[in-house]
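Q: Hand in one record:
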Amino acid sequence: MNLQTLNTLSELDAQERFLGCCGTAWWAQQMAACRPFQNTPQLHDTADAIFDQMAEGHWLEAFAAHPKIGDVDSLRMKFAGNKQWSAGEQAGVDNADEGVLAELADANDAYEKRFGYIFIICASGLTADQMLGSLNQRLRHDPMAEAPIAAGEQRKITHLRLDKLMVDED
């Protein structure tokens, strides 16, 4: 897809494409309403401006659209619009041994219990051990300190997905 195609999609089709980039309906609606985009930097700048207006509930909705790191069953069942992107982003767990996967599952559960949402990390290029290290480090955070970190990771993921949207074939 290119910007011209994105700009000419129906409002609902554009929202659906944006929802695959960031799983909150409010953000997707705002992005679709801001078209037309003149260039990719404007697309990213608009995404950031809308992120800056997002309420906690929007962030939580976006977090919930992600499969848990290393959870293959969750990855299969989550949003068809971005599951192949999620799988590629989490490729670092593909070759992880069972012990690391079990530790990831346990730490994911502990994180969700502590913070009330799943662990969000921009996993592209990270190994399972690196993700586990980040997860264990972030588990020590105060909930008020962790929320903006999780939102920042969501922001990074969304920017990667916007770039993928611009290169995916229709």
In short: The two ends are 6 Å apart (CA to CA). Residues 75-83 have pLDDT under 50 and may be disordered. The chain has two domains: 3-58, 61-165. Residues 126 and 150 are 16 Å apart (CA to CA).
